[in-house]
Design brief:
six-stranded mixed sheet; alpha/beta; 778 residues; 33 strands; binds ligand MGD; 33 helices; six-stranded mixed beta barrel; binds molybdenum atom
Length: 778
């Protein structure tokens, strides 16, 4: 077992990446017992044309090139899956669920890969073995006993392949529901909801090649040094070429400051590094809408001045005239907007807004990227639309080196959505599905994540089946989510590793062990590859190379096919789609996908090309699939009465806004280790970052322990106790802490307008000195 760090808080002076990354790679390989030849072989196959797609993030690869793309956190994701540790039947025989509940999330996952299908036995409070056919029969009997198919929810986490996800949605829709809560609901949903109204497509418009041509990059609310380390390679190249990089983030994240490329012998040997951002703008949490309005207002001011003096226009008038609608109303709204509200609500000085505006108007090819810092807020949809507005002002969409670049999370979260995991399917899609498969698809929209928990709490959802993920820990309002899951008649997890969702189970429960992407997936027609779509709409194939974790693990696709077969054979007088036939050879599923979606034409041939193919994004080609047939400028007021404003009126400056983010040593709810070294946190996770002046104002000191309570007036007490205060360079009134420990603080009913994404980056909270002061960190 790798040695855990001692609990300490210590400024990290190294650049992101570099030798620090190599050290942690080695530590993780040792921890997972994969530091032998097999471990190395696994890593060398990552993101290779004939290897597997990294199960980490959704950042694309350069043509899946021959050099091994090095990324510390990709290695951690692979090592976590390729681990030599196993959770066996004997393990379950030794532990009751109540005992396992006492273990931390880190400990649960650290037991290793699940090896056998297990069923919950209430008499002993243990999971006991079950044969696969009996597991399918149990699920089928529950599903077929429902009065209404809408009493079942099918959760999908973004690692599932296109093949498994597509087959699942065909089955579930034939079964009769659109209940597809999906990790995307908690993630980039505001992007997927916001962009179609402005530019017609809910996806990014850039490709990696655009990073070669851009001269300006605006990075909003993301931490690529930790969450998309392969993006750092691109940023480094851009910086070296002299592109201007601005980071818009309440925190000065290490990876946004300096990066040493572990693949650059020069940087490694000379201990050198590359400066990434040349400018930092630190908005207050949720302040981006006001900030973006401020920058757009400045662009209009400069343009108005240019028009008066006859100088070159600042707005790209040709583009605006030819391609957009709503410009005049938008510009008028900006002219009327007051600077004091912009400055107050963004938390950014007029001077900094001016500087950012200058950078923006100087850029000839601007790329704007964003992550969870924009999406997990009440006004996320409006914020993303305002960013799109800003980009439209100077024609920065659909031009080489310029465009919108939402940076997705899970490696196939975008693909899952593309192939039909969508609780709000369009009629056009359902019509097509019906004509290809010959059944009537349900039209009523289904549950998203928030809707799913609410339906369980109302006692309406009886069966919950999850294809991956960790619903119990990823969702808001943890105690209520626990109650919700426990109210189900059956909960099922198709999963690689043990996590808390398996322990917070329904009256009956199954754990079904599945293959990871690194493993050989052998079916009747031979070893199968699966396809995934990255954040830039590139679709490619991935082949596992490792021996399966256990002979009893089944592929996700096969599990879905058997579930469908077992359930549907009792319906339609036994007339069935050939579920098992699809799972014999995944190219048959891809043929079916191609029949439903024109964009996948020639699917099987096109994935044979190394690097795969681009799905096509109309807005990239300046084809606007909106109601006006143009790119729309959309007016949005600066919100002045959010739950944060309301709570602040009541509690004054003591009211803090809390963001919940990832540490460097975790993959969402999977905790790899206890360090967040770029932020200087070692050996612990229960910390809260606060501004020095706020600490003084509250009469608190760094090193003290605090309890956190939410301010949300619905009669439910929300608290998370025992966090170490860490003084940090964070704007006043803002706090930062890690997810999932802080999810008990996020109210289920606090979500983004239109997108219903939980507001995990803007929770109104109060701090109290903890009753128990733990031993202080060294
Ligand atoms: N190693 C690793 N890789 C991952 C993941 C992981 O957990 N570990 N998770 C994957 C997933 S599913 C996702 S969605 C992505 C997440 O990747 P990110 O989008 O980087 O997610 P977070 O860690 O939540 O960090 C959000 C960033 O936004 C900033 N921020 C917070 N609030 C605001 C705000 O109001 N305005 C602005 N401008 N900035 C703000 C925070 O300071 C932080 O730097 O990463 C993916 N990749
Ligand atoms: N407070 C707060 N909450 C958040 C967020 C936040 O920033 N703050 N972020 C949100 C975001 S962006 C997201 S995407 C969600 C993530 O929510 P989820 O996607 O539900 O969570 P993960 O932690 O990614 O899921 C990890 C589990 O997936 C399983 N798994 C891993 N690989 C595979 C595989 O190949 N196949 C299968 N079948 N299972 C596998 C393992 O059992 C592992 O325990 O959380 C959201 N919740
Ligand atoms: Mo995500």
């Amino acid at each position: 077992m790798a040695k855990a760090s001692k609990a300490k808080i210590e400024t990290y002076k190294q650049p992101a990446g570099g030798w620090g990354a190599l050290k942690y790679v080695a530590m993780n390989l040792v921890k997972e017992h994969v530091a032998d030849g097999k471990g190395l072989r696994t890593l060398l196959s990552q993101n290779q044309p004939d290897g597997f797609d990294c199960p980490g993030c959704a950042w694309p690869d350069r043509e899946h090139t021959s050099t091994f793309e090095f990324c510390e956190n990709g290695v951690k994701a692979v090592a976590a899956e390729a681990t030599a540790k196993r959770v066996t039947k004997e393990f379950f025989a030794q532990h009751t669920v109540a005992e396992l509940m006492k273990q931390s999330d880190f400990e649960l996952e650290d037991h290793g890969r699940l090896t056998s299908p297990m069923v919950y036995d209430a008499a002993s409070d243990k999971y006991v073995p079950i044969e696969w056919p009996a597991a399918y029969a149990l699920m089928a009997s529950h599903l077929n006993a429902l009065r209404d198919p809408n009493e079942a929810d099918f959760y999908v986490s973004g690692r599932a392949s296109n093949e498994a996800a597509f087959l699942l949605q065909v089955f579930v829709r034939q079964f009769g529901t659109n209940n597809f809560p999906d990790c995307s609901n908690m993630c980039h949903e505001p992007t997927s909801v916001g962009l179609p109204e402005t530019v017609g497509v809910g996806k990014g418009t850039v490709l990696l090649d655009d990073f070669d041509e851009c001269d300006t990059l605006l990075l909003f609310g993301q931490n690529p040094g930790t969450n998309h380390p392969r993006m750092m390679g691109e940023l480094r190249e851009c910086a070296k070429r002299g592109a201007t990089i601005v980071s818009i983030n309440p925190l000065k994240e290490r990876g946004l400051q300096r990066f040493a490329d572990p693949q650059s012998p020069v940087e490694m040997l000379t201990m050198g590094s590359t400066r990434i951002s040349s400018m930092f703008i630190h908005p207050t949490l949720g302040g981006d809408l006001a900030l973006l309005k401020g920058v757009a207002k400045r662009v209009i001011e400069l343009d108005d001045a240019a028009r008066l003096t006859g100088a070159e226009r600042v707005v790209d008038t040709t583009f605006v005239a030819e391609h957009t609608a709503g410009f005049e109303a938008f510009a008028d709204d900006l002219r009327k907007e007051g600077w004091s509200d912009i400055v107050e609500e963004s938390g950014v000085s007029r001077e900094d807004i001016e500087k950012l505006s200058q950078v923006y108007v100087k850029g000839k090819a601007v790329i704007a990227t964003w992550g969870m810092g924009l999406t997990q807020h009440k006004h996320a949809v409006a914020t993303i639309q305002m960013l799109s507005n800003l980009m439209l002002l100077r024609g920065n969409i659909g031009r080489p080196g310029a465009g919108l670049c939402p940076v997705r999370g899970h490696s196939n979260v975008q693909g899952d959505r593309t192939v039909g995991i969508d609780e709000k399917p369009t009629d056009a899609f359902l019509d097509r599905l019906e004509s290809v498969f010959g059944f009537k698809a349900p039209r009523e929209h289904g549950h998203d994540v928030v809707g799913s928990v609410q339906a369980m709490l109302r006692g309406e959802t009886k069966v919950f089946i999850a294809l991956g993920g960790n619903f119990a820990m990823a969702t808001p309002d943890t105690p209520r989510t626990f109650d919700a899951l426990r109210s189900c008649n059956l909960t099922v997890h198709i999963t690689t590793k043990l996590n808390r969702s398996h322990l917070v189970h329904g009256k009956e429960a199954l754990i079904l062990p599945t293959l990871g992407r690194t493993e050989i997936d052998k079916q009747v027609a031979g070893a199968q590859g699966v396809t995934v779509e990255d954040s830039m709409s590139m679709v490619h194939i991935s082949y596992g190379i490792n021996k399966p974790a256990s002979p009893d693990c089944m592929s996700e696709t096969a599990i879905v096919a058997h579930l469908a077969e077992a359930t549907m054979k009792h319906r339609n007088n036994g007339k069935q789609l050939p579920w098992l036939w699809y799972a014999e050879d995944y190219s048959r599923i891809r043929d079916a996908i191609e029949q439903v979606y024109d964009a996948f034409k020639g699917y099987n041939e096109r994935i044979a090309h190394p690097g795969g193919f681009h799905l096509g994004v109309a807005s990239r080609d300046r084809v606007w699939k909106t109601s006006t047939g143009k790119a729309n400028f959309l007016v949005h007021a600066i919100p002045m009465d959010t739950p944060i404003h309301q709570a602040r009126r009541k509690y004054g400056e003591r009211l803090m806004t809390l963001m919940t983010t990832r540490s460097h040593d975790q993959y969402n709810t999977t905790i790899y280790g206890m360090d967040d070294r770029y932020r200087g946190v070692f050996g612990q996770r229960r910390v809260v970052f606060a501004n020095r002046q706020d600490l003084d104002m509250l009469g608190l000191k760094a090193g003290e322990w605090v309890d956190i309570t939410s301010v949300w007036e619905d009669g439910i007490e929300r608290r998370a106790d025992g966090f170490l205060l860490v003084e940090y360079d964070i704007p006043r009134g803002c706090l930062g802490s890690y997810y999932p420990e802080t999810n008990p603080l996020v109210p289920l009913e606090s979500f983004a307008i239109k997108a219903r994404t939980p507001t995990s980056k803007s929770i109104p909270v109060l701090l109290q000195r903890a009753v128990v002061q733990h031993a202080q960190a060294a």
